[in-house]
Structure formats: C-alpha cells, structure tokens
Write a structure and sequence with these properties.
Elements lengths: L6 E8 L2 H13 L5 E4 L3 E7 L2 E15 L3 H11 L8 E4 L5 H11 L3
Antiparallel strand pairs: 1-4, 1-5, 2-4, 3-4
Helix pairs in contact: 1-2
Length: 110
C-alpha cells in the first residue's frame, strides 16, 4: 500500500446525468482522469446569493493526479452550466499500488 501519493479525488456536483456524462467524457478523453463515478441523486442544501437552496444533484468522483488539477478544473468549468461549480480536490492518502499505477498510466501522455 502506497501511503504518500501524488493522486487526488476531485468532487464535482452536477445538475443532471447528462451534464455529468459530458464532463466525465471530457475528462476521460483528455486523459485528465482515469475514472469518473457518477453517484445516484443526492440532496444539496446551500446558500447562494443570500437564499438557502435545496436541490437534487449528482456527484462526480474523479480519480486523477494532483498535477492535472488545474487542467481538469478548467475542463469542468468549460462544460459546467453553473456560474460557480463545486470543484474540490482531496488528496488520496493511501491506495493500492496497482490501482494508483493504473491512474498514473491512464492519465500520462502517450
């Protein structure tokens, strides 16, 4: 098990499965992510422009390398309908060496 990795998980909320699939495709085709999970609908409660909102959204869980964060975030913003999309990166503190190697291989230049 690798306990210090250059890998991250990026969390992105989206308003629909269609938007989630478009963003996932852009990230995968650009080799900016190795895998994108799209969760079942979740409930998001948040404050926007002084009003509390309660919306159904989906969550993208993007596995990639930390050095690709800015490029991945730019790709998300380009395809996302929200004015301020959630794009949050969390470090992967530990993981299976074979899985992490796969992320590295898939997101590396050919």
């Amino acid at each position: 098990m690798n306990t210090t990795t250059p890998f991250i998980v990026i969390l992105v909320t989206v308003p629909s499965n269609e938007v989630g699939r478009q963003i996932a495709a852009a990230l995968l085709e650009g080799r900016l992510a190795a895998c994108v999970n799209i969760t079942a609908p979740l409930r998001s409660l948040y404050t926007w422009e002084g009003t509390i909102h309660d919306d159904e959204e989906l969550l993208l869980i993007v596995k990639t390398r930390a050095e690709l964060f800015e490029r991945a975030a730019a790709a998300v913003r380009a395809a996302h309908p929200y004015q301020v999309p959630e794009i949050i990166a969390l470090p992967i503190a530990a993981g299976s060496e074979t899985y992490l190697k796969w992320i590295e291989d898939v997101t590396s230049e050919l």
